[in-house]
Amino acid sequence: MPLLPELPRVQDAVELLDAPLSSSDLEESLGDISRLNRYFGGSWVTRSHLVRLLRTRRGEPVTVLDVGSGGADIPVRLVCWARRRGVSLRVIAVDRNCQILEVARRRAAAYPEICFVQADGLQLPVRAGGVDAAISSLTLHHLEPDAAPTLLAEMARVSRRGFVVNDLIRGRVAYALVWLATRLFAWNRMSRHDGPLSVLRAYTSREIVALAERAGVSPIRIRRHPLLLRLAVVGGGR
Ligand SMILES: C[S@@+](CC[C@H](N)C(=O)[O-])C[C@H]1O[C@@H](n2cnc3c(N)ncnc32)[C@H](O)[C@@H]1O
Fold first, then answer.
1. Per residue in 100-149, pLDDT tens?
2. 75 CB less than 6 Å from ligand 1?
3. Eight-state DSSP code of residue 54
4. How far away, in angstroms, is 174 Cα from ligand 1 center?
5. β-pair type (230-235, 159-168)
6. Which of 42, 112, 167, 227 could pair with 37 in a Cys bridge, judged by C-beta atoms 3.0 to 4.6 Å apart?
7. Does any domain span residue 6?
8. Average pLDDT of the segment spanning 84-99
9. CATH assignment of the domain containing 134
């Protein structure tokens, strides 16, 4: 029996990244997210589960779709990883926000393996099984419980081999550490606001199982990475 009750999920809060933004705030905030992903292993969580899901052979072409790709730092890191290993990887980076996509395009200019598409993750413009795998990072918590199952269903629909959703763990320790990390390593006020709020908006494992059931997506596996304050939801694969 836990000593403290579970933190309730904060509903209907607006993160500043989802509001209208100046381009300098946006650039700085996406830079902060990228730095925090790097320092705290956010990209590693996605990559490690993705690699297990795909089990690619050298030279075999692979297409991955990233929903809510933000500043594209996860696509860029995946491409760097694939280049080093001789994997022929294409990434379709999808985001609903055209301002964010513009920044991402600039940041990823040296990576022609990545193409950018403005679309809603709740209605992906891709045929069923059109990509090998779908990923998303720090995006599920942006959706309220009425919409989140649709994101899972869309990721399952478009991916032949499976999907990986990576998001924050909701809890007091994660909240305190993200609050501190955003004071130490984030330069923009938006990141300091959105980081701790993202923890409070994140879904617990139990809630994600319920979302996946509502989405008709099963089986899923949930792997917690408490030291990295993340959990990964993996659908498909073995
Ligand atoms: C916190 S950022 C995460 C960026 C990146 N995935 C990462 O981990 O660094 C969340 C991104 O999801 C995007 N997003 C939120 N809801 C979305 C939706 N329904 N469809 C597509 N993109 C969405 C936002 O525009 C934002 O760029």
1. 999 999 999 999 999 999 999 999 999 999 999 999 999 999 999 999 99
2. no
3. H
4. 20
5. antiparallel
6. 42
7. no
8. 95
9. 3.40.50.150
